[in-house]
Amino acid sequence: MVRAGLGHEPGQMRKKKPEARSQEQEQHWWGRRSCRLPGHVSWAALVLSALLAAQTTTGPALRYTATPANVSGPREAIRIDLFRWSTDAERDRLLAAWTNPGASRGRGGRGRAGAIDPNDPAFAPDPAGPQGRGGRGGRGGRGGDGPPPAPPTPEVSLAAALRDAATVGYLWSSEVAGYSVRYAVRLPDQSGGERVVLVTDRRLGAWNDLWKPAGSTPATGYEFSVIELRLNASGAGEGKGSLTGKAAVDSAAKSFVLENYGESPVLLTGVKETRLSAQTGQH
């Protein structure tokens, strides 16, 4: 006689279907599993989440739109996106590069090599006589008896400092690559509006002729571009640049400006400011 037992009843060997979990049970189950993850995995997930959040929330705080004028390129709209204004330290560092070029090269670093050391073996008596050591006399010039190298010009010094400065915004046009804005300062204007001064690390049109000045006005040879926007109280106005105008420093405002702004041709027309965020710094 076959005993009734396990495996002889219909359906006894079938795998029991798991019961469906409720939403609360599912959340509790996943929560327990996440607590068992290795420490480095949990931290990596937190860091990744923070980076993703930063990428989705960080963006330009101010935007300026305009149309180029008096250049050989087409009159296509451009935009300038600013993430923040330059800090006082950043501004002062770039101003010093213009007003005191070459100061960062150090004090006396090259001049000390020209000092004569009386204990230098080159000045010791030669046992073989003067004929055998005659050629060593040239070592006296090791310190650089020639004229010291000329200090860099303000333009060259500023161009080098801009390459090391932080990016605070971008200028975008129809070109493939944008222009990095390394200096951004706003100044109050007597008319009730404001002046916005921007400096890019590359000259506008450095790789093409889109920004080539129209007419017979000679172009400047700066490796960078200074752009000065003059806006009314509504955030509208015009802009001029150093493509033909000369850059200068306004000592009272402690900022770069365009020399003889009124005599320079207009570079940007229909400038309009749009505030995208309140986080642009305190300047």
Mean pLDDT: 76
How far do the termini sit from each other?
98 Å
Silhouette: globular
Low-confidence blocks of residues: 33-37, 50-57, 106-118, 120-124, 129-138
| Class from helix and strand fractions | alpha+beta
Order of helices and strands: HHEEHHEEEEEEEE
**Largest beta-sheet characterization:** 8 strands, antiparallel, barrel
Tell me what portion of residues adopts beta-strand conformation. 15-25%
Output the number of helix runs: 4
Give the neighbour order of strands across the main sheet: 1-2-3-4-5-6-7-10
- Approximate helicity band: 10-25%
Radius of gyration: 34 Å
> How many DSSP E strands?
10
Describe how the helices and strands are arranged.
Layout: H1 23-35, H2 39-57, E1 62-68, E2 78-82, H3 88-99, H4 154-164, E3 169-172, E4 179-188, E5 194-200, E6 225-231, E7 236-241, E8 246-250, E9 255-259, E10 268-275
Antiparallel strand pairs: 1-2, 1-10, 2-3, 3-4, 4-5, 5-6, 6-7, 7-10, 8-9
Task: Give a written overview of the molecule.
This protein is of the alpha+beta class. It is 19% helix and 23% strand. An eight-stranded antiparallel β-barrel has the order 1-2-3-4-5-6-7-10. A two-stranded antiparallel ribbon has the order 8-9. Helix 3 (88-99) runs antiparallel to helix 4. The longest helix has 19 residues, at 39-57. It is globular. It starts with 22 loop residues before the first helix and ends in an 8-residue tail after the last strand. Residues 33-37, 50-57, 106-118, 120-124 and 129-138 have low confidence and may be disordered.
